[in-house]
Structures are given as structure tokens and as C-alpha cells.
Amino acid sequence: MLISLNLALLLLLHLANAKSANCSVDPNAVADRRLRDTLLCNYDANVIPLNPPEMNKIRAQISLSLKHVAMNEKKGTMTITAWASTNWFDGQLAWNMSEFGGLDSVIISSKLIWTPDLTIYNSDMTQVHLNHDPVSCFLVPEAHIFCAFNLNTPIYCQADLRLWPYDVQTCMLEIGSWAYNGEQLLVEKDVRRDEHTISDKIFFENKQWTVIEIKVENVNDTFPYVSWTFKIQRHAGLFEAAFVTPAFALASCTLLSFWVISLTHRLLLCFLSLVCNVAFLISIVGQIHEYGDEKPKIAVVYRDSIVFTLVALLFCVAMPWMENSESPQILVTIADAIRERGGRRSRLLLGVDFEQDDLEQNDSTECQQQSRPKCAVFAPLLDRMVFATLFVLYTLMLLSLLP
User: Fold this and answer.
1) Which among 161, 158, 157, 159 has a CA at the least distance from the CA of 295?
2) Is the pLDDT confidence value at 351 over 60?
3) To 10 degrees, what angle do helices 378-401 and 297-323 make?
4) CB 59 within 8 A of CB 188
5) CA proximity to 117, closest of 128, 102, 104
6) What residues form DSSP beta bridges with 185?
7) What are 156's strand-pairing partners?
8) Which of 199, 172, 175 is nearest to 185 (CA)?
9) Would you call 209 helix, strand, or coil by DSSP?
10) Do 136 and 109 form a contact (C-beta atoms < 8 A)?
11) Are 165 and 239 in contact (CB under 8 A)?
């Protein structure tokens, strides 16, 4: 039984070899058809076309023609859409033009020939092979093959949003062989098309991102691959108007409250600024994703602005109490000295009512008989000191936000 089975297998193998050895090529067919039949006779698309010592290694060159890029900060991915063009030599697919009517090229499906198993190493999806779907490849008599595969896949790219909305993201695309090591297949960049990664004819500008730099380099490893480094910058116009400009406006609103005479109006300004800062901070959290300890500067600005506004609000509430409370003698002396020796400018800075102050100076005896807090101006002085401190802090904070 076993002998019969072996004989049957040998017979099938012999018939298969005989069939493949006698490929039928119609001599009366057109040159293109005869060429295809001749090239594919005894050709195995599953075997890498190595033919030592003439060809010990396949060199596959690859280039990109970028069509579109898009960033998804919440998922931590960047989607690249491009044409991935690759070329290599296959010694089994050479022909003599004189034997085929001077035919100098032929178009053939990639599923009929061996193609490099180019894979995106850092894809967000599992094993994305560029040659997964068959495409039409271009062959020339010197056995040079050109294929162009459509690339549309998200790649891992952790966003750095510290400078949002003026951020620049750096992402990498890595393409190499999945099955063949560097001794069999060398994947490298196509130096002839290195500078043509972005084409004005096929590239569609993203409304949110613009490509500012692309670098291509070969990475020599056990499995050599080509690495593209993309630098993309966000179009900040809309976000600048929606989040950066209000930050300056709310800071001005908080500082302006220190110069409002009416206590009620001052409280309203501080409360309005506080509510708006909280609302904008919540909106920013909804716009961008959370990524550990690194906080966007714009979020830090609104967070600190909330603290500064709370200080202004609490100080506004405490002002009436401070004006009617007993102050330390040394502070009262300093405040009175500034008011009396600084002239009208210092009195204006301290928020002193000139008419009321002149009446107090004309009736100093009566003032001395009254309780000391009613004659002191330490509370307005402290108010201006808090204003100056917040002004400096706001200035430094908002300047750090600009690009």
C-alpha cells in the first residue's frame, strides 16, 4: 500500500514537471502575449529570484509620493496616504527585444510575479503589507521591475501637545521586509526620487496640518528598512482665535478690576473672569487628550489664571474689612509717608480720593482723634501691590504662550 502511494506521488510530480517544462507559447500570437507566456513559463512567484553568483541579493528601492497626512492626537496615530513606489531586478524576467518585435516594456499583474513583502513596521494595524492587493507592474527588457502600491494606514505617533496650538509633531514611518533578512533582500531608499516625496500634482493640503519637513534614511539592521521622519505643524489660526486671544482678554479683565471704584462692579468683573477661565479650561480638555505629566501650556495658563482671579476676588471681598481694621503701626506709617510725600501721582496710584484726602489733611487734629484705620491708606497700597504682582505674573505667563 505504501509503495503504491509513493509511486502515485512520483507519477504526479513527473507529470507536473513535464507540464511545466513544456510551456505552450503560441508563435503566432501577438508579441505582448508571446512575451508574457515566455516570461511566466516555469516561473514561481513564491520563490525569491536569487541566482548566485550573479545575483546573491535582491535590492528593492522604495520611495513615497505623499498625498495626504492627518493627525489623531487622542488615538496617538498619524494617517499617511501616499503612493509607495518600489523597483528591483528579477533576472528571470529579462528578454531580447528583437525576439518579440522590438517590445521594450510590458505591464503585468503583481500577483503573477515575485514582489518584495514590504511591511509597515510601526502600523497601528497588524502586519500591513503593501503588496497585499495586486497592482499592475511595469517591466523592461533589462529585468527591471517597477510597482506602485497604495499606502493608506495609521502609524503610531505619540503627540507632544505642550505647545498646543502651536505644536509641531514628529512621526516616523518604517517600511521593510517581514520575511527576508538583509542577506536576501536589501530594502533601501530610492535616491533618485528622494526629493520628490511631496508632489504638487497629487498632494492635498490638510486644513489642520502642514508638512514642514521630511527626512528619509536607510536603517541597516538584520531586516533592513527605510525610515521616513515627518514633521507636521498645526494651523493655529482657529485655535488661536478661540483659546489664545481669550486668555489675554480674561487676564486684562482681572487686572482691570483693581482699578474699578465700585465694589459691586469689581466683584462682577472678577466673577465673570473666573467663570470664563473655568469654561475655557474645560473646553481645552475636550479638544486634546490627556498624556501623563506633560501639560499643554495653554491649559497651564488657564489653570493659573483661575488661581490669580481667585486671589483678586478674595482680595476684593476682604478690602472693606481691611479698610476698617487696625493696621500695624509701621505699615500705617509707610502708607502715610507714600501718600504725603509722593504727590498727586502716588495718591492716584493708591486710589486716594483727592477731595476727601484734602479735607483730611486740613483737619488733621480731628483725624488724629479718630481711630487710626480711617486715616490710613494701607489697604489701597496693598491692593496696588497685589495688582503689580499679578501684572508681572500674567505678563510672564502669557508671553510664554506665544510661539
Assistant:
1) 161
2) no
3) 180
4) yes
5) 128
6) 58
7) 77
8) 175
9) strand
10) yes
11) yes
Closest CA to 323 of 245, 242, 383: 383
The amino acid present at 256, given as its one-letter code, is L
User: What totals of helices (H) and strands (E) does the chain contain, helices first?
Assistant: 11, 11
**Cell numbers that stand for 253 in this block:** 479683565
d(CA 133, CA 117): 12
Concatenated DSSP letters of 320-360: HHHHTSPPPHHHHHHHHHHHHHSHHHHHHHTT--HHHHHHH
Residue with cell 465673570: 272
Please say whether the dihedral angle defined by the alpha carbons of residues 281, 285, 290 and 294, taken in this order, is positive or negative. Answer: negative
pLDDT of residue 233: 92
Per the CB < 8 A criterion, the answer to whether 373 and 325 are in contact is yes
In contact, 85 and 131? CB cutoff 8 Å = no
Q: Which residue has the cell 506602485?
A: 148
β partners of residue 107? 138
Residue 357 confidence class, pLDDT cut points 50, 70, 90: very low
Task: Tell me 91's DSSP state.
Answer: G
Q: How far apart are CA 388 and CA 274, in angstroms?
A: 19
Question: Alpha-carbon distance 170 to 248, whole Å?
Answer: 29
Q: Which residues pair with 168 in a beta bridge?
A: 233
Say whether pLDDT at 193 is over 50: yes
DSSP string computed for 249-297: HHHHHHHHGGG-S-HHHHHHHHHHHHHHHHHHHHHHHHHS---TT---H
Which residue is listed with cell 502651536?
A: 166
| pLDDT, tens digit (0-9, with 9 covering 90-100), for 295-318 | 889 999 999 999 999 999 998 888
Q: Which residue has the cell 517597477?
A: 146
Q: Write out the H or E segment, with its range, that includes residue 34.
A: helix 31-39
pLDDT digits (tens, 9 = 90+) for 130-158: 878 899 999 999 999 999 998 888 998 88
Say whether pTM exceeds 0.85.
Answer: no
Torsion of CA 179, 181, 183, 184, to 10 degrees: 20
Comparing 56-60, 172-176, 340-344, the range with the smallest average pLDDT is: 340-344
First to last CA, the chain: 83
Amino acid at 296: P
Give the pairing of strands 118-120 and 106-109: unpaired
